[in-house]
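Our consortium's second objective concerns turning raw sequence data into structural hypotheses that experimental partners can test. To show how far this objective has progressed, the report includes one record in full. It was chosen at random from the queue rather than selected for favorable results. The single chain below, 237 residues long, was entered without modification.
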Amino acid sequence: MPAAPSTALPQQTAAEQVRSVLARAISLSLTVDGATYDLLGAHTVGARGRITLHPPADTPLSDHLSRAPLGRPDARIDLTDIAPTALRDRVRARVTLTGRLAPATPGDLGSLRLDLAGVTLRTGTGTQDVAPGAYTLAAPDPLALEEAALLTHLADAHADLVSDLVVLAGSRLPHGVVRALPLAIDRHAVSLRCEYGEGHCDLRLLFPGEARDAAEAGDMVRRLLTAPRCAHHHDHP
């Protein structure tokens, strides 16, 4: 018998989600030799997701690295993905990458690369381990860098449109919503957080097609109001 057609809803893979988090992150925490350092604007993400750290000079981290024995110390990098809108429970995802640090340029501790060994993604729906190979082959969502501007514009300038989007859920959305705000947007869908007196649920509204940039995303949001195709939500106590 032929295989049944897939009913999976379009969404980012776990590897794409991790790459998207890294693409928009400006800060991270580095743990090496049991000590943790918070780095702001001190890393870059290159081809195939290669992370390079640029520890500032004359800081506790640079002092630590200068005193460390020669070799490739084990390291852990933690990133937290925060929603740009002022909703409850703004943490959308946490990413952990493990591996070993090595000079990006031999003999120079001013730039350190992470030779990746493991990747973990934690979201409200659970924890997933991402194979390093899948991570390096994935690409960030095309809206990742523009997502914050899109969501804040939607929240600040189009509250009426957000309310209209909530209506699309119909009977699938429990009664008693006191506020709805944009939570996330990617090439496949826009997600709203619907808050109650206690708790919330997340509503994901699929676009009629894929959005390749911010202009197409705006068009897709408007088209949802005239040609809704599919929506689902997850309840969170």
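The partners drew two points from this record. The longest strand covers residues 108-123. The radius of gyration is 20 Å. Both points have been shared with the crystallography group to help prioritize constructs.
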